[in-house]
Model the fold of this input.
Amino acid sequence: MTTPIRRALSHCVGWAADRRIPSFLRPAIYRGYARATGADLDEVRLPLAAFPSLAQFFVRELKDGRRPIDRAREALVSPVDGTLQALDAIERGSILQAKGRDYSVGELLDGLGDERTLEGGQAWTVYLSPRDYHRIHAPEDCALEELAWVPGARYSVQPHVLARRPVLAINERVVLRLSTAHGTAFLVLVGALNVGRMRVVGVEPTPRRLCVPAPRFARGAELARFEMGSTIVFLTPPGACAPLDGLAPGRPVRLGERIGVWRV
Done:
């Protein structure tokens, strides 16, 4: 499928997802969606009839207390619900992808950061499926110093596609440069097939923006959201953080749970 066709399909899906649903039909439609995808309706904060469209339901908020945040000083927490796709060291300017394929850190960040400062660091890749909660939260106390919306393709980010091409560095994405007490980290939101809308709290979409003053986010605070499912990549500098023992690709992770240990 060519890029223009994928983009047109994404626009069509977005248009359909934005259509207003009669209130009396909403509970049945969203329950059907939950049955098809595995979404947990018991976690949804608002009544189902309160969501006027599928797009609004997709970015539903959770009931208070459903995602406790690990507050230990040394904890790196997952910024999202999803499935860990990859857990890799950054070596020779690249991140290893599925089946031995790798992709360039410089291309992933689109020049927002100097990839040399990440050499020897660590990368966590988490896939969000249609069943998952799609708001993205700060993995650590941080300041959002700079961000960039990067145009690109809209390939699927499912594992069998990643095995064939370096999708994460060529898809449309938003790159966030975060200043933390442990050094500069990067959080990359990667768009996918039917996923062209990514939002960052308090920041309008612009090609590139230096945030002055830099907005601050406490660990666990809402930072951004996908308006359809996709993938995030979180990168930390060398020596700053180690993956949690026993964490391996294929494991489900939840927002706020520990996925790594800060060393500095």
User: Anything to note?
Assistant: DSSP finds five helices and 17 strands in the chain. Residues 3-58 form one domain. The CA atoms of residues 81 and 132 lie 6 Å apart.
